Amino acid sequence: QVQLVESGGGLVQAGGSLRLSCTASGITGRLNAIGWYRQAPGKQRDWVASISREGSTNYAESVKDRFTISQDNAKKTVYLQIHSLTPDDTAVYYCNAGYKGSGSNWTFYNYWGQGTQVTVSS
Predict the structure, then answer these.
(1) Residue 20: which of 82, 62, 76 has the closest Cα?
(2) Which of 1, 22, 48, 50 has the most CB atoms less than 10 A away?
(3) Residue range 64-74, pLDDT digits in tens
């Protein structure tokens, strides 16, 4: 059974940084990637970054200069480092499990965690 637990959110001032964590269990078989998503109030949930077990990464264009995804396979944890936070980054951040195939083939499924709230004050 896949379980994902996000943590590390909080209230920060604009310009600050945060590191979010996603601790995973039950990631077996075809699942070999973790993705981070965010959902702002009243908006759809959007993908922001992903990483494969082998270390391949992918970022949404809008965040690639400020977000860094990394992992510690021994701890089964994926991190999302966010720099230069702005109020537009305010959202609930979720991680999800998926599959990274050859090339740029990424597929994510509905293995959502409970999310972690990030609030950025101006």
Answers:
(1) 82
(2) 22
(3) 999 999 999 99
